[in-house]
Amino acid sequence: MAVELGIIEGFYGKPWTWREREETIAFLAPHGYRFYLYAPKGDAYLRRRWAEPHPAEAASRLAALASRCRELGVRFGVGLSPYEIYLGFDAAARAALARKLAFLDAIGVDDLALLFDDMRGDTPDLAERQLEVVAWVAARTAASRLIVCPSYYSDDPVLDRVFGRRPEGYVERLGEGLAPGIEIFWTGEEVISREWSAGHLRRVTAQLRRKPFLWDNYPVNDGSRLSQYLHLRGFTGRPASMAEHIAAHGINPALQPTLTRIPALTLVDSYRLGPEYQYGEAFRRAAMAVLGPELGERVCEDLLTLQDIGLDRLGEKATMLRERYGGVDHPGAREIVAWLDGEYRITDEVVQTQ
């Protein structure tokens, strides 16, 4: 496969369990997923409380996950969001950041992502302030790959509405100032892009002065609206030909770790088969591979209901679905039932506080 694929656990809401992470990584690794980035919004010690040390148990679990990734031949990474550090990069902030970097080095991080997203960005010298932080980190981290997520990581105007108007020429200044070996995340023309075109990727490459490292927000289903749906369908709008225009392709998975493996497998097919790829057929094959023939067939039959209607509009169909999946002894079926019971609902409050 010509492109490096990976998982970016970067969603809001309840993070996966450690076991779910290991099982998902182990399942996808043989199919070509070569990196995993730990960046759940629910880990406060990587976000709003980033300056505080991780609790001992969490630190031990992270180290164990890093070790497991090495056993599987998968790059292990962590996404650090030093909340608005660029607004006050003083001695105290540097000391706290040095401690966090030392911790990440100790657990064995191959990839370090500095995430400046989901923060106010309407500062005229935003790029210059962030470049200072990145250069400082680059000189001190033992990670062999450094990736930066800009505050404005898409053309989508929703970012300007939520986080303030982006400074003029921000992306270009960031691309110009970053060392050539540092990667830059990009989600496309929208935060949740329906497709990528060669024209868009060429234009972004010129702006960033490097090929973008895709942060693909499918099949993620966090947020108050998206958590109403299960994202199961095969990938579309990602032609295999885009491989030559990107540095790597990471997908932000769904809240449901077992079910997320279904679309994840279809992306492998999309790159492998190129123009012969058929997203419906790829979905069916993946459903059978992940869930087994009987449960996979059942999910294929219910695809429209599970992905298109939404929890609040299911009505009597919810009872029918509980009956169809409630007695099935499979983690995928249990995730469907938990979704029906509202266990994966994400509120606006969760998004605003994580």
Strand content: 5-15%
Order of helices and strands: EHEHEHEHEHHEHEHEHHHHHHH
Average residue pLDDT: 96
Low-confidence stretches: none
CATH superfamily: Glycosidases
Q: Give the terminus-to-terminus CA distance.
A: 36 Å
Helix content: 40-55%
Q: State the strand order across the main sheet.
A: 1-2-3-4-5-6-7-8
Main sheet: strands, sense, barrel: 8 strands, parallel, barrel
Your description of this structure?
The chain has 15 helices and eight strands. The protein is globular. An eight-stranded parallel β-barrel has the order 1-2-3-4-5-6-7-8. The chain has helices at residues 18-28, 56-72, 91-107, 126-138, 158-163, 170-177, 198-208, 223-226, 261-273, 279-291, 293-301, 303-309, 316-325, 331-340, 348-353; strands at 5-9, 33-38, 75-80, 111-115, 145-149, 183-186, 213-216, 248-251. The chain has 354 residues and is α/β, with parallel strands linked by helices. The protein has one domain (5-289): Glycosidases (TIM Barrel).
Quick structural overview:
The chain has 15 helices and eight strands. Strand 4, helix 4 and strand 5 form a beta-alpha-beta unit.
